[in-house]
Design a protein that fits this description.
This protein has a domain at about 285-455. About 70% of the residues lie in helices and about 0% in strands. It contains 12 helices and no strands. It starts with 9 loop residues before the first helix and ends in a 33-residue tail after the last helix. The structure holds protoporphyrin IX containing FE. The site of protoporphyrin IX containing FE has 28 residues, from helix 2, helix 4, helix 5 and helix 6.
Amino acid sequence: MFGSAISRWTMHHFAIALGFFLLAQAAMAAGVTFPVTGLLAPTTLATVHLLTIGWLTILMFGALQQFVPVITAGGPAADKSALASLIGIVMGLVFMEAGFLALDGQLAQGAIVSLPFGGAVVLTGALIGVIALTRILWQTRPLTFSAQFIAAGLVFLLLTVTLGLVFGLVFAAPELVPWGDALGDGFRLHLLAGLGGWFTLTAIGVSYRLLSMFTLAPEERGWFGTAVIGLTVGGLAVTWFLELMVSLGVPIPAPAITVAVVATGLGLVFYLADMVRLYRARQRHQLELNTGMATAALVAFAVALGLAAYAALSGYGEPIVGAAGYLFLFGWLSGLGLSQLYKIVPFLTWLERYGSILGKRPVPRVQDLVDERRDRPWFILYFGAVAIGTLAILIGWPTVWRLAVFGHLVATVMVVRALWLARYGTPRPPHRVEPPSVPVMIVPPAQIHLNAGSNVR
Ligand code: HEM
């Protein structure tokens, strides 16, 4: 049955993640975050975690619950543990938000304790999810190319959340972590593990799999792929470890860190070059909206990397780092997530609705559940607004930035509406059954009856 191949809680993850994404953008448009306030103001931190935990982490967990069994051709998707993990992460985040608001003085000082408490609950939720995914990955050793990035990403997730919990304790109960000061510069470790390790490595792994499937390009990446995985995963792991040593006061020669950082950067450049190769080698010449818009996310990633490199080399501070961070979170990660949801949500809906009757009577195609002509302008508005927002941070125009954020908030609302209509609206009239073509497999291959003809385009 198709139903058994679909992770039961993936759609719930997606719906909750999108809710947090809208909330975070509303907070930014309301002007309670950087660049209107400071980069480390409690309200900025509260919003950053709505984005990083509420939106991106929950989105990625939802996607991984569905894809890990497929990528590894392994066992069925986790069920109860996926729900337990979701509940833990959401509840923990709510407590964390209360803690950040207490730091800002908007709640009683005593509520600061909910920052580490929430962190511990998030850690529990993440741990449940990681264990379930690791079990599937472990059963299917040796790991496939995409799965190797995902496994590394999961390790970095646990490091990120554990470090976050330590920071929460430093704020709320420093006496409990007398060694907290030793981590002095540990903030960088939190960012490196979260943004570089968990988000970027996972996004690279999932994008390799999804974009090669959706564009019908070869998934085998040859020596290029080996270079990407060696340099990004190896480079990040070494950089993180050396930074940890520095934080703990171990003397590490600066050139060693520079070499590790440059290797990681080179790996990311190789990844972007490999994406160009992948798109060039595709067999599906007419790009669908999701794969077309993924190119905008990849361009945003390239520009964000350029800005970060410039900031590091020039020593220029907040505006460039802030612009790079904003573009990284909204252009690359959120842009990639939003554009791929535009394919994944209709596809899973289509499988749930028509999987069991496929081949027995005419059914719509996946693409009949969406209307690309109607939705294309909203994606263009989304990426256009993010570009303007990035420039506004660089130039120092907070009002223009807030207008730009409002622009991508509106665009997100309209994409959410499109996803809602794909799931609950009426598809275009049934389509005749087409001759078989290569199916887009985001459920295990054995679950798709090829001889029924493929309507999945
Ligand atoms: C996926 C998980 C996480 C990610 C990706 C993440 C990401 C971030 C980012 C990007 C910042 C910098 C914000 C800014 O510059 O405005 C930050 C700061 C911070 N995070 Fe997290 N975070 C995560 C989980 C957590 C958890 C579970 C806690 C626990 C309470 C936490 C506590 C903190 C604290 C206290 C700061 C401020 C540190 C300081 O000012 O020294 N984070 N985090």
